[in-house]
Amino acid sequence: MKSRLLITVLFLIATAGCGKKSAPAPVPDFTPGKATLTLPKQNEACTSGTIISATQSSVLFTWAASNNADSYDLNLKNLLTGLTTSQTASTTQLQITLFRNTPYSWYIVSKSSKSATTVQSDTWKFYNAGAGTVSYAPYPADVVAPAIGQNVAAPTGTVNLSWKGSSVGSNITGYDVYFGTSTSPAVLKNNVIDNFYNNVSVLSGLQYYWKIVTKDANGNTSDSGLFQFKVN
Q: Are the C-beta atoms of residues 148 and 184 closer than 8 Å to each other?
């Protein structure tokens, strides 16, 4: 009886130190957060820049700091020429020389030296104001669908085109849709008031090109540039 009791006591002592192993410490997450853009503002004419010459001015770009980020890439696109540039900053602002009376888009990529992951902000558009300018052409339309270079299934022999338009004065009056199989597509439909045009006839195996010309109430226009897709 005593030996059995002794065995039981020894077992309890041995198992008392065999509790659950502590969970490993969580791995720190250094993924940077998404930057919030502040200036130049979305879809506005930027008039606060410092004039350098008749054709150029210096514009201040600012954004809110994002968690874990220790550097930022400012990506800038001239919407007239399509030229894109990128500059890196360790703070939340950059001063950049731009052409006047020219539309631009920009976004910020947040980066951390402790993470391989980067995070992109929203993309904003603005007009860098020019001398004596009282109205601005609409921004070139952005493609929504079909995406550029996409292979599209068209079981009914038609596709739907959609795009996104914007302007400084929110005074867009319509869109001219150009569509065809050549790199100089003909007008498919004038004065479309929606951001889409449906049931466009296509043939299997062909590549199609299309573009949008945006028009506003002041008689200004902008060309989206050429989009393309292929029908399966």
A: no
- Residue predicted with more confidence, 135 or 207: 207
Please give the model's pTM, rounded to 2 decimal places.
0.78
User: Each residue of 37-68: pLDDT tens digit?
Assistant: 999 999 998 888 899 999 999 999 999 999 99
Cα atoms found within 13 Å of the Cα of residue 229, Cβ hemisphere only: 23
Residue 175 near residue 192 (C-beta atoms within 8 A) = yes
Task: Please give the Cα distance from 35 to 33 (Å, whole number).
Answer: 6
CA angle 127, 171, 140 (to 5 degrees): 50
Residues 6+ apart with CB under 8 A from 141: 163, 164, 165, 175, 212, 214, 222, 224
Which residues share a beta bridge with 55?
Answer: none
> Does an H or E element contain 231, and which?
strand 227-231
